[in-house]
Design a protein that fits this description.
The complex is a heterodimer. Chain A is mainly alpha-helical. Chain A has helices at 2-10, 36-65, 72-75, 78-103, 107-137, 146-173, 179-182, 184-214. Helices cover 76% and strands 0% of the residues of chain A. Chain B has 19 helices and four strands. In chain B, a hairpin with a 2-residue loop joins β1 (6-9) and β2 (12-15). In chain B, α3 runs antiparallel to α17, α5 (152-171) runs antiparallel to α7 and α15 (437-467) runs antiparallel to α16. The chains are: A mainly alpha, B mainly alpha.
């Protein structure tokens, strides 16, 4: 906890360059109870809900309007997707552990857990690639029919979100962790914020998996 | 007069009038020093190009958006030449290339390109960036007493995403297949099978959507988190409320269009058929796609964005108008609380009216009935805001300066635009009016003499804030009156055409149809002349604007003695210098003690009491009036 007090002091004179201090960048605003980035990421996630919500609505509209709609568990590969579900849930746990360790002032354990999260993301993407490859080998492409079209579009967009999260984790594992020396509280906040995003990506998959693969 | 009252400045006694001058001079010198210091701090490219200062980004947005507005208008002039005098050769047409206008005669496919790009540029690249990106960026932090936006780097990224999106859109003009040509609505299946210009359009839109996402998150966090001490929600200037609701609309309405853009991109590039029904015949051949898609899906996703987008266009305009009307009537806004309630309600309702654009698609009477009910309901908050603004004029001692003239014209113009929308919201009337010029007249009345007039009002009103110079009043009034006459000359006949059944998007304006020929021939040349007149009316504005902007850049100010030329109460005028300080805005972050429009308080010496002024200066006996800033200085000494 000493790290936090230190961070708030250090925040004022970091860097030789004069940089503008934005209020409530690190510490929460008393009347709203959040710091800026946390509110920002919640709003961003609201926007993401609308993005995936529109795609889920499209899926429902296309499916209810179709004369014939393939059943996911017969045409897709359920086993790798199930493994992927557990990999993502595990990564949501590890990102919380990373944040908790940083809160306790333990950068080493924090970085280990960020690394594990990144690794989980990588495993997810590799299994996804394997699964796509299986689909392609069965001559299943986006243009085959609207089921595969929406399957590839939604899982592809979700994959891009996973990739984006991985890039951010890779940054915090390497260059980004320099901030710990000057502003540990702010660095911890950053992991919390990316963690919220990561939970959302996880949650999208929790919806995608039964909708596309099981129903 | 009586300014003989003595005050102490530092350790010196002097007359109040001299003290005022001294303070002003001291502030000017501090400002100059500050500025010089800043110039040493940041290299040019960080200060003016990749700046993270919300004021510079606001100006970048504003300048870019004004250029796009002019470009979109010029495209329209070419279309109006063709509509007014169909098939005639114009040498100005040669500007867009021989492949679009051989011999100066516009080709039909080129007309479609101009139409699609006019709508896209005006809405997505012109008005929204101007209303939100420029005015919002520049003013919201100043009005709520924040040193900058909450995320300055995201703010910069937002501008540059917008810029890249604009460049992608424009680059399709130089592509041999031409630009997008399926209208600004890009309805499939036409847009799915259109030339590659449509792909440029979709790529550009993805960047623009990203830009507005970054911007809207930034606005919301700024407004919620960075309010100065004492700036409670009901002390927000109405403009801030308008921007707040607008940002929510941008945040939540744009993603479905992004989803739709991704799906259409898949249709065009990966061969899927999200929007292509089975057995679609194009040029006598059945498309090889798998089919099974639904063209209406696009319309639902598109209008889920595009109806809230209408309110994105109009809310910031209402905000600007409210500021100007309160200031120039020297009265508090009538019904401020109802207006705030109305815009919040409007924001919610705007998400459940979208399918009133689709009454003709055969989606069913039950759905039509639902959406026509919600549409009638959503007209109520707009009427509340407009009525409150009208009633605010009652009993005011109105100052008819240029910003106020534009603001006053906004009221009836937006009124016409809004009221002509009601028949379109009723399914039975819409069956006749859908896709006619009546629709064009309706939404142009809302957006052109509505929103764009508000934008002009805002430019004239806040130009002294930004530059330290006032725009010329005479040329401002010339600009206003000619614009007002011409813009009505363009859009009013559209209602007559529409009621006579002239369809929109006709290359020749309808003369080849028997029912449309007479009215089209009567009105189209007149409307085109008015459009050219409107273009000419912008010349005084452009000269006025650039002349004063350049003089301001050279450091010459004509309002140097007065930082608050309109004697306004809101923080952007009362708590900072004009132009504001560099990064950081305020020397001391102001504390807010009162509501936004405390004009003409009965016991006050002046007719305006700034939001950051703690106690009302009592009116002195006749002849004893003091300028409030001196009074403040006196107390502090």
């Amino acid at each position: 906890m000493d790290a936090h007090a230190h961070a708030i002091d250090a925040g004022h004179d970091h860097g030789g360059h004069h940089e503008l201090e934005i209020p409530f960048n690190v510490a929460p605003r008393p009347d709203t109870g959040v710091y800026n980035a946390k509110l920002g990421v919640w709003l961003f996630l609201a926007s993401e809900v609308m993005l995936f919500g529109a795609l889920f609505s499209s899926l429902i509209l296309l499916r209810t309007g179709a004369a014939h709609w393939p059943v996911g568990k017969d045409t897709l590969h359920v086993l790798p997707a199930t493994i992927n579900t557990f990999v993502l849930i595990l990564s949501s746990v590890t990102v919380v552990l990373a944040w908790a360790n940083l809160r306790l002032g333990d950068l080493k354990m924090g970085r280990i857990f960020i690394g594990v999260t990144l690794l989980c993301g990588l495993i997810f993407m590799l299994i996804k690639a394997y699964e796509y490859n299986l689909s392609f080998s069965h001559e299943h492409f986006p243009k085959t029919n609207n089921f595969f079209a929406i399957y590839f579009t939604m899982t592809g967009l979700h994959g891009l979100h996973v990739l984006g999260g991985m890039i951010v984790f890779a940054y915090f594992l390497t260059f980004g962790s320099k901030m710990w020396k000057t502003e540990p509280a702010r660095f911890t906040n950053r992991i919390e914020v990316v963690g919220l995003y990561w939970h959302f990506v996880d949650l999208v998959w929790i919806f995608l998996f039964p909708t596309l693969y099981l129903l | 007069m009586a300014l003989k009252r003595q005050v102490r400045v530092g350790n010196q006694w002097m007359y109040a009038r001299d003290a005022w001058r001294t303070l002003e001079e001291a502030r000017r010198v501090t400002l100059e020093e500050e500025r010089l210091q800043q110039q040493h701090e940041l290299p040019f490219i960080r200060k003016y190009v990749f700046s993270t200062d919300h004021k510079v980004i606001g100006l970048q947005y504003g300048f870019t958006a004004l250029c796009f507005l002019l470009l979109g208008f010029c495209l329209m002039i070419l279309m109006r030449l063709q509509l007014g005098w169909p098939g005639q050769a114009f040498s100005v047409m040669k500007l867009i290339g021989a492949m679009r206008a051989p011999g100066g005669v516009l080709l039909p496919e080129a007309y479609n390109q101009l139409g699609a790009m006019h709508g896209t540029i005006m809405i997505f690249l012109g008005i929204v960036p101007l209303a939100v990106g420029a005015f919002g960026n520049y003013l919201v932090p100043l009005q709520i007493g924040a040193p900058d936006m909450a995320f300055p780097k995201l703010n910069m990224a937002s501008y540059w995403c917008y810029f890249v999106g604009g460049v992608i859109m424009l680059s399709s003009f130089f592509y041999s297949g031409g630009t997008a040509n399926s209208g600004w609505t890009s309805y499939p299946p036409l847009s799915d099978i259109a030339t590659h210009g449509q792909t440029f359009w979709l790529c550009g839109m993805v960047f623009l959507i990203t830009s507005s996402l970054l911007g809207s998150v930034n606005f919301l966090v700024t407004i919620i988190q960075l309010r100065a001490k004492g700036m409670t929600l009901m002390r927000f200037p109405f403009f801030v409320w308008a921007q707040f609701v607008t940002s929510f609309l941008l945040l939540l309405a744009f993603p479905p269009l992004e989803a739709a853009a991704v799906l259409q991109m898949m249709d065009r590039l990966a061969g899927t058929s999200f929007f292509l029904p089975s057995g679609l015949v194009v040029s006598g051949q059945v498309l090889p796609n798998a089919g099974g898609g639904n063209p209406l899906l696009w319309q639902h996703l598109f209008w889920f964005l595009a109806h809230p987008e209408v309110y994105v266009l109009i809310l910031p305009a209402m905000g600007i108008i409210a500021e100007i009307i309160a200031n120039n009537t020297r009265k508090p806004l009538w019904g401020y609380r109802s207006m705030v309630g109305a815009v919040i309600f409007l924001g919610f309702m705007s998400f459940v009216v979208w399918a009133h654009h689709m009454f003709l698609t055969g989606m069913g009477t039950v759905i039509s009935a639902f959406f026509q009910t919600t549409t009638m309901i959503i007209s109520i908050p707009s009427v509340i805001v407009l009525s409150a603004l009208f009633i605010s004029l009652w009993g005011g001692s109105i100052r008819f300066n240029t910003p106020m003239l534009f603001a006053l014209a906004f009221l009836p113009m937006f009124g016409i635009g809004g009221l002509t929308g009601l028949p379109l919201g009723l399914a039975t009337a819409d069956l006749h009016l859908h896709d006619t010029y009546y629709v064009i007249g309706h939404f142009h009345y809302v957006v052109a003499p509505g929103t764009i007039f508000a934008m002009f009002a805002g430019v004239y009103y806040w130009f002294p804030k930004i530059s330290g110079r006032r725009l010329n009043e005479f040329w401002g009034k010339v600009h206003f009156w000619i614009s007002l006459v011409c813009i009505n000359g363009i859009f009013f006949p559209m209602f007559m055409q529409g009621l006579a059944g002239v369809s929109r998007r006709l290359y020749d304006g309808g003369i080849q149809y028997a029912h449309a020929k007479a009215i089209a021939e009567q009105t189209n040349p007149f409307m085109s002349v008015c459009a050219i007149g409107l273009l000419c009316a912008q010349v005084p504005f452009l000269i006025n604007f650039f002349y004063n902007a350049i003089l301001a850049l050279l450091g010459r100010r004509n309002e140097i003695a007065n930082q608050n030329p309109w004697q306004a109460t809101t923080l952007e005028w009362a708590a900072t210098t004009s132009p504001p300080l560099g990064h950081g805005n305020f020397e001391v972050i102001p504390v807010v003690y009162r509501g936004p429009y405390e004009y003409s308080l009965p016991d006050s010496a002046t007719d305006w009491t700034p939001q950051n002024q703690e106690s009302v200066e009592p009116a002195l006996p006749p002849g004893g009036g003091m300028l409030p800033e001196v009074a403040v200085a006196q107390r502090e000494m």
